[in-house]
Amino acid sequence: MGAFFTALARFIDRVNGAIGRAVAWTALALVLVQFVVVVLRYVFGVGSIILQESLVYLFGTLFMLGAGYTLWRNGHVRVDVFYRDASPRRKAWVDALGVILFLWPMCAVLWVMAEPYVAGSWAVREGSRETSGIPAIYLLKTEILVFIGLMALQGLSLLIHSVATIAGERRP
Fold first, then answer.
1. What's the domain count of the chain?
2. Is residue 172 part of a domain?
């Protein structure tokens, strides 16, 4: 593997790492906002649509933008029948083929399906159906495309690392 590809893979890893660490804080925000919603509702008898909707935004952000980080940290679910006891080289083959045969085609399908959906939302600056809701659903839907991009890029990094392992150029 050339120095360019190694540097590219490391750059992608750093980007997804930084995004993942930043987005992890939304988990804390999610818990705190949910706590506030419960206290407001059951202690004070007050409901807040904007707080309720912010939970959806936080949850979506956490999972959509954190998915590339999770792939980088090898945290996604996989069938361990072939993988668990495999040698590092065989694991690299499984990872490389998984990116090429499954991850990238799924990213392509998702992009084709999501792009018009997101573009339509941006065209009308889609907002909440509720009067006092968050008027930025188009931003939440944009996270779908960001998710696809981060996953595809992390797949490229995984492929580069896998090819280097297969070629014996680096230890996994």
1. 1
2. no
